[in-house]
Specification:
Structural class of chain A: mainly alpha
Number of helices of chain B: 18
Strand order of the largest sheet of chain A: 1-2
Largest sheet of chain B: 5 strands, mixed
Main location (chain A): membrane
Strand content of chain B: 5-15%
Shape of chain A: flat
Order of helices and strands of chain A: HHEEHHHHHHHHHHHH
Order of helices and strands of chain B: HHEHEHEHHHEEHHHEEHHEHEEHHHHHE
Distance between the termini of chain A: 36 Å
Distance between the termini of chain B: 31 Å
InterPro entries (chain A): ABC_transporter_permease, MetI-like, MetI-like_sf
Largest sheet of chain A: 2 strands, antiparallel
Pfam families (chain A): BPD_transp_1
Number of strands of chain A: 2
Structural class of chain B: alpha/beta
Family (chain A): Belongs to the binding-protein-dependent transport system permease family.
Membrane topology (chain A): Multi-pass membrane protein
Helix content of chain A: over 70%
Oligomer: heterodimer
Number of helices of chain A: 14
Strand content of chain A: under 5%
Radius of gyration of chain A: 25 Å
């Protein structure tokens, strides 16, 4: 998992809570006095200054870089052999023609197709199971499911990498003992499963907590009413719980899509272990490769801007769709 | 991480990353009007290095030279320090002193990171072999750094297992192939060694031995890229053939699985550089005293040529306000007997200076206690190092190697080794052309 879901965690938990319960305190703000009209802006200043310094300016600089390139003269040795020149949209044209980057995006989508349904499906099932009245030692189970999320991504990737290597993995030892087939987990399609496994292992707990929190916020009288009407636990889950926690599911889905496009840690950590991983396997690896190995910060900036725009467009579209969906649902 | 593998660099990658935050502030300390070097108070120099314990060597200097204080700042090696230096140069605060891998020199010179220090250190030329000196001058009149350590390639083998299976130490690559086949026959689940697609530095060294010249500058002031030249093709074909035949393993080096292969003896040999004992001690601790080192197999019997895998030098940045003082330190650390002894003792490097390779300074590595003549043999081999030919976009070529040879070793097809080499050539050439270099294909 990348850090994207982590950052969103606080927002996520508040959202469904306030939404689901409908018991948010209905304090009506008193009308602001005329005198203090500028006060809100003063309160905004620190945020705006920090936002500008650490978000807007770097983005602006990246865009500026993406429109330039380096020009070398002659054999390029010594002073003044290199100059930064305007390149217009040249870097962007290169990005869009770069089949390696295109493939990395496709690979990320392929990876996402495995990770997102599996991870969110498991998270939902776990959350529903923990929420059933008969669940025993629920706090312990909840902690255990959540625990892998607390393991840093790089450690998780290295640990799994070790387990994937046939000659050192205890699993392969057991497979060998029982005469079972030993798959090459770094080969072809298995590679996607291997990465997806790490992501699912690490991410399910977080998403489970988000959904579970939303479930806990549902007032119990709804279930009581349903039970009086003769609904079974399964029916309650399918007809009541899932529709009510839909906004949380949409949110977790949304964060997972972003995390998928930004997959980096797992393939980067496993790359030295195998011949099968290209240096541009995922979009972020492609950016890392051009910025930090080929020292082409201009091309890397253009690629980063393209990826950011694509993520933005994708997120926006998804939000619009889910918005319409939930609104229709309510109507 | 595609970092050039090196006994020293492997251990310090993380430490280097941690030091990242400190360096810019330190580097910015120099005053602006100290050009004369005669200002009051000591001159303060910052030294970016990834070698472990380098600060202990600097401490010796600081004690003896109270007017020039050197502070070591730990860095990552490989492509990362190069990117960082280029960025620091852009910001105008590159450190005074820099540890530079030989293959990164043209890239850094091309980005104007390194100063020409020929007027301060031009006279130390005689301390080094011709091949090494050529690397730090890039064949020009300028001197961009002072050689620090060299890493000649050698052939390491398990003496006990060779004896047990009746294998003889190969003197030529033809014999090497025969030994590989014989080893496979004797121990079906073992290999003589592996071809690693994650270590372009080793392949570059082997190509260097075979006469490959990847980057050269021709008389007309043009770069010439010859990665798929005859010598390198020969190397790719040779290893590709053995991998296809199934007598050489295809797994990458520096993985837990590789460590185990060395430790359990399912790899019987390793083509590596002079720093190999430091790797073996951590990768294959159970095999202490069972290895032996011999010269690298030759392409023509009777020849005596080797390549190198790694090695670095000390350069002075063009941002330094105290170039003369920095050059003085660069000269001291790489040629002074006391400094050379400290380099051997603390960062455990194999000195580039000819007098640093004498047995008075170097003591037989503990891991090779069975081979008392380890360092005298090493010195003989080091003297036969072929000159290398590095260019301004080595990392591009290295990444192309990892990607192309990764698929080729996985497929175990000799033909793919050759097409990977052709791709490596075209990617490197295209990249240089795109940047605007005057360049032709050899």
């Amino acid at each position: 998992m990348t850090s994207a879901p982590l950052k969103g965690s606080d927002r996520v938990e508040v959202g469904p809570l306030a939404d689901g319960t409908g018991t948010a305190p209905s304090v009506r703000p008193s009308r602001p006095r005329r005198r203090g009209r500028s006060a809100p802006y003063w309160f905004l200043v620190p945020t705006l200054v920090l936002f500008a310094a650490f978000t807007l300016v770097p983005i602006g600089y990246a865009i500026w870089l993406s429109l330039h390139k380096v020009k070398v003269k002659g054999i390029g040795l010594g002073k003044g052999a290199r100059s930064e020149v305007w390149n217009g949209l040249g870097n962007y044209v290169d990005v869009l023609h770069n089949s390696e980057f295109g493939h990395s995006v496709l690979r990320a989508f392929g990876y996402g197709l495995i990770v997102i349904p599996t991870m969110l499906g498991l998270a939902l099932v776990f959350a529903l199971m923990l929420d059933t009245p008969k669940a025993r030692s629920a706090p312990f189970a909840r902690l255990m499911i959540f625990l892998p999320y607390a393991v840093p991504g790089i450690i998780a990737a290295l640990m799994w990498g070790f387990l994937y290597l046939p000659t050192v993995s205890p699993f392969y030892y057991l497979l060998d003992k029982f005469g079972l087939p030993q798959p090459d987990l770094f080969n072809g399609g298995n590679l996607y499963l291997s990465f997806a496994n790490i992501a699912v292992w690490g991410g399910t707990g977080f998403n489970m907590i988000v959904i579970y929190t939303a479930l806990r916020a549902i007032p119990p009288d709804i279930y009581e009413a349903a039970r009086i009407d003769g609904a079974s636990n399964l029916k309650i889950a399918l007809r009541i719980k899932i529709p009510i926690v839909m906004p949380s599911l949409v949110l977790t889905f949304f964060f997972s899509v972003i995390a998928t496009l930004q997959v980096f840690t797992e393939p980067m950590a496993l790359k030295p272990l195998t011949n099968n991983l290209q240096s541009t396997w995922s979009p972020l690896m492609a950016i890392y490769d051009s910025a930090f190995l080929k020292s082409d910060i201009y091309g890397a900036s253009a690629t980063a801007v393209v990826l950011a725009l694509a993520t933005f467009v994708l997120s926006f579209t998804l939000l619009r769709i889910s918005d319409r969906y939930t609104r229709e649902d309510r109507a | 991480m595609s970092i050039h593998r090196h006994q020293i660099s492997r251990r310090s990658i993380l430490a280097g990353a941690a030091a990242l935050g400190l360096t810019s502030t330190l580097a910015a300390c120099g005053g602006s009007d100290d050009d004369s070097g005669e200002s009051s108070g000591p001159v303060k120099l910052t030294y970016w290095s990834w070698a472990p314990n380098m600060e202990k060597v600097a401490a010796i200097w600081n004690k003896k030279n109270p007017d020039i204080t050197v502070t070591v700042s730990k860095q990552a090696s490989g492509g990362e320090i190069v990117s960082k230096l280029i960025t620091a140069k852009k910001a105008g605060n590159a450190p005074d002193l820099i540890q530079v891998e030989y293959q990164s020199l043209p890239t850094l010179v091309s980005n104007d990171v390194l100063a020409d220090i020929s007027k301060y250190v031009g006279d130390v030329k005689s301390e080094f072999s011709e091949g090494l000196w050529h690397m730090v001058t890039l064949g020009t009149d300028a001197v961009y750094s002072v050689p620090q350590d060299s890493a000649p390639l050698m052939f390491y083998y398990r003496e006990d297992l060779f004896k047990k299976h009746g294998l003889s130490v190969p003197k030529t690559w033809t014999e090497f192939a025969e030994v590989a086949r014989a080893a496979k026959k004797a121990v079906p689940d073992a290999y003589l060694t592996t071809f690693s697609s994650n270590d372009p530095g080793l392949f570059a060294g082997l190509a260097q031995q075979a006469g490959g010249k990847w980057w050269t500058v021709d008389g007309g002031g043009k770069w010439s890229v010859g990665i798929d030249d005859a010598g390198t093709k020969k190397v790719a074909e040779f290893w590709g053939g053995l991998v296809q035949e199934g007598v050489i393993d295809n797994q990458p080096m520096y993985t837990p699985a590789w460590n185990q292969a060395l430790n359990k003896g399912t790899h019987l040999a390793w083509v590596s550089a002079v720093w190999a004992p430091g790797v073996l001690i951590s990768s294959a601790p159970d095999t202490k005293g069972k290895w032996r080192m011999a010269p690298l197999p030759q392409w023509k019997s009777g020849d005596n040529i080797t390549g190198s895998w790694g090695g670095s030098s000390t350069g002075v940045s063009s941002d330094s306000k105290h170039a003369e003082a920095a050059a003085k330190f660069a000269r001291w650390i790489n040629t002074d007997p006391e400094a050379l002894a400290a380099l051997v003792k603390y960062p455990a490097v194999y000195p580039a200076a000819t007098k640093g390779q004498s047995v008075d300074i170097l003591t037989t590595p503990e891991f090779f206690s069975n081979q008392k003549d380890f360092y005298s043999t090493a010195a003989t081999i080091a003297a036969t190092t072929a000159p290398s030919a590095w260019g301004p976009n080595v990392q591009t070529a290295y990444t192309a190697f990892q990607d192309g040879f990764g698929s080729a070793t996985k497929a175990k097809k000799e033909a793919q080794f050759l097409s990977a080499l052709a791709t490596m050539q075209s990617k490197t050439f295209d990249d240089m052309k795109k940047q605007g270099f005057e360049v032709t294909e050899a």
